[in-house]
C-alpha cells in the first residue's frame, strides 16, 4: 500500500512539474517574441542612424560645392 501511495504522489508531482514546465515554455516563447521585437527596433534605430549619417555626408558635400 505504501508503494502504491508513493507512486500516486510521484505521479502527482510529475503532473505538477509538467504544468510548471509548460508555463516556463510559454514564458520562454514570450521572451523570444520580445527579443525579436527588440531586435527589430534595434535594426530600425541603426537604419535611422545610417540615414542620418548619409544625410550629413550629402549636406557636407553640397556645402563644399557651394564654396568652390
Summarize the structure in words.
97% of the residues lie in helices and 0% in strands. The model has no long low-confidence stretch (mean pLDDT 87). It is rod-shaped, with a radius of gyration of 29 Å. The chain has one helix at residues 2-67. The chain is mainly α and 68 residues long. The protein contains 1 helix and no strands. The chain has one domain.
**Uncertain runs:** none
Quick one: how many beta strands? 0
Percentage of residues in helical conformation: over 70%
**Mass-distribution shape:** rod-shaped
Topology:
Layout lengths: L1 H66 L1
Task: Compose a concise summary of this entry.
With 68 residues, the protein is an all-alpha fold. It has one helix at 2-67. The longest helix has 66 residues, at 2-67.
Key terms:
single chain; 1 helix; mainly alpha; 68 residues
